[in-house]
Predict the structure.
Amino acid sequence: MYLYIYDTFLNQKKYFNLLNRIENRLADLEIKGKICRLNILKNMKEVIEDGIKQGVETIVAVGNDLTFSKIVNIIAELNITLGMIPVTASKIAQILGVPEGEKACDTLAQRLTQKIDLGKINQQYFIDSATINNPNVVLNFEKFQISPVAKDALVSICNLGFLTANQSIYKQRLSNPTDGLLEAVIAPLKNKFLMKKLDRQSIFPFKKITIASKGEPVTITIDQQAVFKTPVEVTVSPKKLKVIVGNKRLF
């Protein structure tokens, strides 16, 4: 049984025609299911829990990367398959090989699944990355520790892949979300030679680290939603999430 969760921004009229095409395509492919349109009165966690009680085994995030990542943290401990229908440009969908709009329905119908790793900070899971826009951090690995040198450094803890300054995926350093590792990426945020810098020595694979700060606690943002303050512990949870992927996935 499928549960399609529509994010709140899809209540705007400009998405009506697209959603209508998506629903028609799902009907053609015979993978219709219950549709839940989120609003200020509908809590995502409660909607998912109710759906699971009713026998839902596959949840499909209809929206964007934030929609998907919110659901990830809710179902990470559950035996649920997660799919995606992106209606805007999506880094996660690109890496999973899922096309935008109604074309994503065909990917869902193929039902090609993959178990992927998740990152975890304290008790919060994340699928994509944790970012720190502050150079005053210390990453403590098992046998060594590192800190950014550049004053404008960006520190990213990546599970899927690193975004360049223009928000494109840096494919030469794409993380593999099935290898049981996360990657700490340190890069100068405003340096036009970012790609060359990454090619040198700014990526550190790991299974577990602690992140501290030099002085006052610094802010860590995970998957564009949850915010933590240092110190924190970051670990990888191998093969934690079952997702629907496409033939053109990037891992």
User: Anything to note?
Assistant: The longest strand covers residues 232-244.
